[in-house]
Amino acid sequence: MRNDTDTASAVLALTGGLANVRHVTHCLTRLRLTVADPAAVDEGALRALPGVLGVIGAGTPSLQVVLGPGVVDTVTAEVERQLAAGARAGGVRQEASAVDAGKGSDRAPRKGPLAVSLRRVANVFVPLIPALIGCGILAGVGGLLTNAGWLPGLTPALAAIASGFMALIAVFVGYLTAKEFGGTPVLGGAVAAVIVYPGVAKVTAFGVHLSPGQGGVLGALAAALLATRIEKWCRGRLPGALDVLLTPTVTVLVAGLATLYGLMYAAGAVATAIGTGANWLLTTTGPFAGLILGGLFLPLVMLGLHQALIPIHTTLIEQQGYTVLLPLLAMAGAGQVGGALAVYVRLRHDTTLRATIRSALPAGLLGVGEPLIYGVSLPLGRPFVTACVGGAAGGGFVGFFAMLGEKVGATAIGPSGWALFPLLTGDKGPAPAIAIYAGGLLTAYAVGFAATLAFGFPRGTARGTTPPVTDRTPAGSA
């Protein structure tokens, strides 16, 4: 039986103890820790810990422990609880600051401003993913019931439940943006709420009427960022008595006016360009776009650059009802499944590696690719590349149909692999989208398997013999 309390305690102990952990967060599959002294992390023991699927970023301040969906939520909550208890008991944060000011800070490499910015933007949108998934599935179920003519009394209720979150998503983005960038969260939400307020239709600027929701999540992100800057400027200049009254008033007024008379127009233009560009890309260069997106997505993940796609996905879902990019990108994980199966067949005498593949394969089929990537294909080297070839082939398959007018989209972000099926739809409805996506998965499996079997091992490697392995686990953020 799984014990998440023991897992959390062991993770903290192996990452240098309570005093070494400065910040905790998580995404769908990974516990993300900022450590003061990277040298205090016992990477080998951490990898061997039951329940840990992989470790990324060892030797850097940004450590990621891959735990898988569901598990990561409860383990993160327990880590945060233990950190809070330790801080109350003995001033853990002061010790961490002392370590950070000493030897650890001299050795630890720092991330560039682009990587830091992308990570912080991702931190804004990642907490929204569970709601996007839940509402997306309900929207899909409601659509199926409507098309089939079943339960007509229930479908309006499902539509209301599924659409309510999306109607107010700008408020949530504003709240989380202010929280992430050091402002008062409710002020960020208040300014972002201007975007979705129906009364903005009465506002005219430069001879043009605004539309409720114009600018969407991008406008909300920009508005909350501006509000945070204004709030910090006011708090540094106003005395305590005036600060309580004037800071929130000035923040909401100035940022609100800037949102109405500038940011909503600019963000709306950018959102429209994103939607137009995505549609043009697929209808004009479908197979080529699919090859590039499906083949290069995993290297982007390793570099942390995939985080820039999160607001793009969200914008497309808000604008069109689904993102056409996610099904293409999901092919990358399918290629890894095919590559891992080839490794399993080829290295039949490597019982340890085959056991790893057997345990990781179900997660890989459901779209959790880290165990296969960091436990199998990436350490071996060539199978990672040939698996990416499989992902490119699957992406090209889906892109080809998009060019023919059969677009496949996902109503939420987060899942991939088989877990994406309940979220699929398209311009011709869910049935064709599901069929095309399934064809893409099969193509990625087959090509990833064949390419790895043919080119994934050094020439002269005997069947059943494990080739020399170089530790290629990336230190960057994923």
Architecture overview:
The structure is a single chain. The chain has 3 domains: 4-110, Glucose permease domain IIB (Gyrase A, domain 2), CATH 3.30.1360.60; 126-276, no CATH class; 296-455, no CATH class. The protein contains 19 helices and 8 strands. The chain has helices at residues 4-14, 43-48, 71-90, 92-101, 103-107, 113-125, 129-148, 155-167, 169-180, 185-196, 216-235, 240-303, 309-320, 325-329, 331-346, 351-365, 370-380, 382-403, 430-455, and strands spanning 21-26, 30-35, 54-56, 62-66, 204-205, 208-209, 409-410, 424-425. A hairpin with a 5-residue loop joins strand 3 (54-56) and strand 4 (62-66). Helix 9 (169-180) runs antiparallel to helix 10 and helix 17 (370-380) packs across helix 18. The longest helix is centred in the middle third of the chain and has 64 residues, at 240-303. The radius of gyration is 24 Å and the shape is globular. The two termini are 29 Å apart.
Strand order of the largest sheet: 1-2-4-3
Largest sheet: 4 strands, antiparallel
The portion of residues forming beta strands comes to 5-15%
What is the H/E order? HEEHEEHHHHHHHHEEHHHHHHHHEEH
Straight-line N-to-C gap: 29 Å
Per DSSP, the total helix count is: 19
Domain count: the total is: 3
Low-confidence stretches: 92-109, 470-478
Basic shape = globular
Set out the fold topology.
Layout: H1 4-14, E1 21-26, E2 30-35, H2 43-48, E3 54-56, E4 62-66, H3 71-90, H4 92-101, H5 103-107, H6 113-125, H7 129-148, H8 155-167, H9 169-180, H10 185-196, E5 204-205, E6 208-209, H11 216-235, H12 240-303, H13 309-320, H14 325-329, H15 331-346, H16 351-365, H17 370-380, H18 382-403, E7 409-410, E8 424-425, H19 430-455
Antiparallel strand pairs: 1-2, 2-4, 3-4, 5-6, 7-8
Helix pairs in contact: 1-3, 6-9, 7-8, 9-10, 9-11, 10-11, 10-12, 11-12, 12-13, 12-18, 15-16, 15-17, 15-18, 15-19, 16-17, 17-18, 18-19
